[in-house]
Write a structure and sequence with these properties.
heterodimer; A: 222 residues; mainly alpha; Butyryl-CoA Dehydrogenase, subunit A, domain 3; 3-stranded antiparallel beta sheet; 5 strands; 53% helix; disordered N terminus; B: 236 residues; 2 domains; two-stranded antiparallel ribbon; elongated
Chain lengths: 222, 236
């Protein structure tokens, strides 16, 4: 739980004041401007219309997450194919690791490739649905914290793609064993990239829209 | 809450701001709350009164340190590319891998674009960001006017920040090693240690980078002056 700033004066937002704040550098401009004259970033009002981009990237990320789970992530060839060629999907790989008693790596891969992506889809979707709906200040703080967690943790899903890349480059022992990446690696990397873009398109200012601007009242009213 | 709350109070504290043009004001990028702009002392941290997001946290000597750390990044990255990264051996078969081999693992057929993306996130973007930061900050730390396009350079560097994934790559390497550890003997090359050092250097650089401070410095240095930056000596 974030500590609420000890502050009970009324708060004025740029939007309420008929101004527009730059999300890149914080500078405030009249509503009519569309580019920040200091940092050159595009100015956008905290508007639910910006959620279209969030949904579009989120759907794209979800679509690519399906082949990422159906196709093989790794192809292993042992002893020239004599000891068997195995193809493993993300989930299959986790089961295989468990089978060999590699609990730690199995847990990390399961978290990074299955738990985090799915929680991200749910978290971003939920934030986009509730964005702009009136809530209490404490709700807004929790939603902002959820958004920050999603923003921070999203890129770490890429870890499985890196593991596949390192294994494929490293395990090239000719006849003994070799590992090649499968098509799921690309699909998974794209899925992670699209969900990162989705999280970046989300405007956290929407979390705070619709809140009454007197914080003392909010804190006692919930 | 560290440091002083220097962007103290929204609209209640005396200050020179203009509610029709927005000059002298700062809007929180997370929640849109307006604050009156103040120049901070090094070491102070300004937080949003509403959502507690950090608005600015200038650090003493930050620009010089970021420049030094950026050069370190470039040198370490050159070492990391060309020295061997990992070595694996089993049953008389050995294989030595450099960073390029790792990325080239995906280089056949449909997986080619992933090679480019991987090389970019591991090597390209950290180096590019280091060069952009040097380009932006060298004239500023010497007290001169920023180079042309410094604004675009720093904005690009900030945009690329989440896409520069060197630290994720190092953790991925560790995982891969645990995974094959039982099957074969693995030894680290100099490039692996260079990469670990790179992660620390990048983390330090991120601590010193306060975007707002850099924007203020670029503005004070004379790029795109529109007369709205805070005057240190109030003009009578």
């Amino acid at each position: 739980m974030t500590e609420l700033p000890a502050h009970d004066a009324p708060i004025l937002t740029a939007h309420r004041a008929g101004l527009i704040g730059c999300r890149g550098c914080g500078r405030v401009w009249p509503d009519s401007e569309d580019t920040c004259h200091r940092c050159g970033a595009a100015l956008s009002p905290p508007d639910r219309r910006s959620l279209n981009a969030v949904w579009a990237w989120l759907v794209a990320g979800f679509i690519f997450y399906i082949p990422a789970n159906l196709f093989p992530m790794l192809r292993t060839t042992t002893f020239g194919g004599l000891a068997g060629n195995t193809e493993s999907t993300i989930f299959g790989g986790v089961l295989e690791l468990l089978h060999y008693g590699n609990w730690f790596v199995a847990a990390v891969v399961f978290t990074a490739s299955i738990i985090i992506p799915i929680s991200k889809f749910i978290a971003i979707g939920w934030l986009a649905i509730v964005a702009g709906r009136p809530a209490t200040v404490r709700d807004a703080h929790n939603r902002l914290m959820l958004y920050e967690v999603v923003e921070f943790i999203g890129r770490w899903s890429m870890i499985d793609v890196f593991v596949v890349a390192i294994l494929s480059a490293l395990v090239q022992l000719g006849f003994v064993a070799s590992i090649h990446p499968g098509p799921a690696a690309v699909a998974f990397a794209l899925s992670v990239a699209f969900t990162m873009l989705s999280a970046q398109s989300f405007d956290p200012r929407l979390i705070w829209r619709g809140l009454p601007l007197r914080s003392r009242k909010d804190l006692t009213d919930q | 809450m560290a440091g002083a709350m220097a962007y103290s109070g929204p609209m209640l504290i005396e200050g020179t701001y203009d509610l029709t043009t927005g000059s002298g004001l700062v809007a929180c990028p997370r929640c849109d709350a307006l604050h009156v702009e103040h120049d901070l002392q090094a070491g102070e941290t300004a937080r949003c009164v509403r959502c507690n997001a950090v608005l600015a946290s200038p650090r003493a000597g930050a620009f010089t340190r970021i420049i030094a750390l950026s050069f370190t990044t470039i040198v370490l990255m050159i070492a990391a590319i060309f020295f061997p990264f990992l070595r694996i051996s089993r049953a008389g078969f050995g294989n030595e891998t450099s960073l390029f081999d790792v990325a080239l693992a995906f280089s056949h057929g449909a997986l080619m674009p992933l090679t480019v993306a991987l090389l970019g996130t591991i090597v390209g973007l950290p180096v590019l960001r280091a060069m952009l930061l040097v380009y932006t900050l060298v004239p500023l730390s010497a007290g001169r006017a920023p180079y042309s396009h410094a604004v675009g350079a720093f904005r690009l560097s900030e945009t690329l920040r989440p896409w520069s994934m060197a630290e994720i790559f190092v953790i991925g390497t560790t995982l891969a090693l645990i995974k094959v550890g039982g099957l074969a003997t693995i030894s680290f090359g100099p490039a692996f240690w260079a990469f670990c050092a790179l992660i620390l250097v990048n983390a330090a650089s991120n601590v010193f980078t306060s975007a707002t401070t850099v924007w203020d410095a670029i503005e004070d240095g004379g790029a795109r002056t529109d007369g709205r930056e805070i005057q240190r000596e109030p003009a009578e």
